Amino acid sequence: MDFLASTHLHITTWVIAIILFLVSAAMQSGTKGQKVTHMILRVFYILIIITGGALFAKGMDFNMGMLYGFKFIGGILVIGMMEMVLVRKAKGKPTTMFWILFAVFLLITMFLGFKLPMVEHFLA
């Protein structure tokens, strides 16, 4: 369980997921490459949630459960906006609002993530 609560593993998974998301969003909708990239991205969603959940549980040791909870909710919202952008793009619907919400939720979540005490162990 300690391996899953690794800040390094969590940051690696969400960085790869954001890269996959941007690549998938840049691809032509409906192509085989875009569908494969989107499915791989969905696997990374699961990895992000698992590692984030483990960090959330470990964050209780710092008596900052509420902030870790807000970060967890923010992360789920980021994943939701990523999925909404890709699905709505595939259906030919407007995605501007979801791109804006993605950026806002990502910035809030990253701010909280780098502000919380476990990142001090990561940066040390």
What features would you describe in this structure?
The chain has helices at 7-26, 32-59, 65-90, 96-115, 118-123. The protein has 124 residues and is mainly α. The two termini are 22 Å apart. The mean pLDDT is 89.
Major sheet description: none
Poorly predicted residue ranges: none
How many E strands? 0
What is the radius of gyration?
15 Å
Structural class: mainly alpha
Give the amount of beta strand, in percent.
under 5%
H/E topology pattern: HHHHH
Please state the overall shape, judged from the principal axes of the Cα atoms.
Answer: elongated
Mean pLDDT across all amino acids: 89
Q: Give the termini separation.
A: 22 Å
What percent of residues adopt helix (DSSP H or I)? Answer: over 70%
Count of helical regions: 5
Strand-helix topology:
Layout: H1 7-26, H2 32-59, H3 65-90, H4 96-115, H5 118-123
For this entry, give a set of tags.
single chain, 124 residues
Brief description of this entry?
The chain has 124 residues and is mainly alpha-helical. The chain contains 5 helices and no strands.
